[in-house]
């Protein structure tokens, strides 16, 4: 049953009455965070372009497709910009979908926002609570149905939280979205959330649970492999709880954790796990990068660049995930690499190379420019000979000839970078000076409540708002430069590389790996540790069943494949990817042979999935991939036993999952030998071990008979020479 409070009195509604209400949603347009500074000093986060579409359009388009009929958009910082944008868009004129804005200049947290919405008395039943930086394609039908069914049986079931599987990095203890490793305890039968901790102590594999939690719940699953999607199905009681508790500011840190420890009122939170659907929130620059790549790689379908929805223009998808909008001028000598998006009206000069990047509308890119893994927004000018690596460049920026943006750089609106100037890694540059006092994540971005997009002409107003400022002078940006390089606060360097669009530096991964190995040595972890799946159970080596081993092997292979594909698509250096593979090996307690087999499998699968009209083309795919990544495979296939594992894995593929390779087994075996990945001893030992096997097990030995004979003769000749 639905529950509301009016004047402190609890009023209960019958389910039949509740069912007649349209499905409503609250969309928080404010991020209530400082993680996107300095950009959000000038523009609200929800209007920042995500693959050339304002973020809020992804959220609204999904809510409309999911059957939501009425959305209340709460705006505070830069509220005028958000309201003006929505009024000029088509969102205000959609049939059966109402968008209403609620404006406030005093709210500094999500809690304040929900208290104000409660006062307006606009929510009349269960509602969906999301922020305007959410991207999803999930159906809400089943989640809402489960929530309503629980409410009928237990009126204290006030919220259902959407989650999905997402294993954090065992090195950095971060998710792929750059968020902290999350620990959740969930009742496996009822799906009730029992424990929620975002910043657990990572020393290292242990967390503290209240004894009463274990005593009161006969069955608990403890997870560190779940992602909070920040999509909540709420009863109207949630709003009154915020009103009754003014110390509730943050949705998770205060509200969720507050309800979990409150044993007086007995309110409950449940979880709903999605599997094949997509849902994620843009919380920092790394999640901005990750979700952008997911959109380009079509995980968010139908919300992808070539499918028309609000505010995106028609874009043609081509091979290798390249998207081109109309009216692009591209030199014949310019090259566009895989997973790249180019917006309408952009011009690209001679011999320029762009890969794994998003280019906005009406940009002018000169000749001999290199752009890798970067996000260039609208109306940007990049002159000849510039280099951009894993950077964000906002609207109206001018980068003069020969300038270089090192990884992690963020250039805010209309900044000018002088000729030949090198912007150091992780620098943030703005026309606005940097505040001396940094606000906490609970506080809003600075904003003039009556303004639109800010420009340099109102920096005096910003001075008055922010107090005393300190930044480097504009001359530090090279000849003709304009802007201020913000300094990184003491202790803030780690946040920069953790939350950047740039790949985590190899030296940081190496440091983290060494710390893990040191901790494992000190702790001498036993069977009470957390397993890689996040469940509390014995170590893999202690009497695991064969089924558990198979499941673990499959999961490990999938993790290796995903890591390898990311290295391919993002041009990650081999040394860096080896560090990540080592962390997986450590996490899953695997051997070098296991790694060699899994990497080879991933390489061959990529060759198979790359277009090949004929068998000869398939071999060429294999040769190209092996040549490019031979250093990675060699690293794990150093010993003869490791190399034999590679051959056995290849045999298995040819017989089961990738029979297309069967006719070329001998050729590829020879290729691996020529590339010094397989030694002759490994091939001869493999063949020798098969000599007494049944004929069905000797298919590929027989196919490779001439090559094996040649190796034997060469080996005998070498022995004779030594004698």
TrEMBL record:
Subcellular compartments: Cytoplasm, Cytosol
Region listing for Disordered, in residue ranges: 531-555
CDD domains assigned to the protein according to its UniProt record, in alphabetical order: eIF-2B_epsilon_N (cd04197), LbH_eIF2B_epsilon (cd05787), W2_eIF2B_epsilon (cd11558)
InterPro entries: ARM-type_fold, eIF-2B_epsilon_N, eIF2B_epsilon, LbH_EIF2B3/5, NTP_transferase_dom, Nucleotide-diphossugar_trans, Trimer_LpxA-like_sf, W2_domain
Keywords: Cytoplasm, Initiation factor, Protein biosynthesis
Pfam families recorded: LbH_EIF2B, NTP_transferase, W2
Chief localization: cytoplasm
Keyword field contains Protein biosynthesis: yes
Residue span(s) of domain W2: 550-721
Keyword Protein transport: no
Source species, domain of life: Eukaryota
Protein family: Belongs to the eIF-2B gamma/epsilon subunits family.
Oligomer and partners: Component of the translation initiation factor 2B (eIF2B) complex which is a heterodecamer of two sets of five different subunits: alpha, beta, gamma, delta and epsilon. Subunits alpha, beta and delta comprise a regulatory subcomplex and subunits epsilon and gamma comprise a catalytic subcomplex. Within the complex, the hexameric regulatory complex resides at the center, with the two heterodimeric catalytic subcomplexes bound on opposite sides.
Stated name of the protein: Translation initiation factor eIF2B subunit epsilon
Species annotation: Hevea brasiliensis (Para rubber tree)
